[in-house]
Amino acid sequence: TPPAEDTAIRPEDGEVVATIKELLETRIRPSVQEDGGDVRFVSFENGIVFLRLVGACSSCPMATATLKQGIENMLMHYCPEVEEVRAVQDDEMPYMQEERM
Predict the structure, then answer these.
(1) Closest CA to 49 of 28, 26, 32
(2) Do 23 and 79 form a contact (C-beta atoms < 8 A)?
(3) In order along the chain (101 residues), what is the average pLDDT of each group of 10 residues?
(4) Which of the four, 28, 44, 78, 85, has the lowest number of CB atoms within 10 Å?
(5) Alpha helices in the chain (DSSP H)
(6) Phi-psi region of 30 (alpha: psi -120 to 50; beta: other; left: phi over 0)
(7) CB-side exposure of 95: number of CA atoms within 13 Å?
């Protein structure tokens, strides 16, 4: 199956963003979806990955632990440029413009 629209690698994506999207699509999203949730890539800016947790994840009390201990640790392991992962609520966007590295 083709990648979801948010993790489709575009020509303007730099190597870091492409790696983040690939990890989200192949390693992170499948396990999150098993629990009835999903994770969407929003942006990468100044070392911070912004993600939107949807479905069961949006109301799950373990969402923060999943975000920090699971997703953040994996992205930081494979992408040293990633310093932090933050969740963005459904009704908000990060204050900055999406940056392609």
Answers:
(1) 28
(2) yes
(3) 85 95 94 88 96 82 80 95 89 46 36
(4) 78
(5) 15-23, 29-34, 63-65, 73-78
(6) alpha
(7) 1
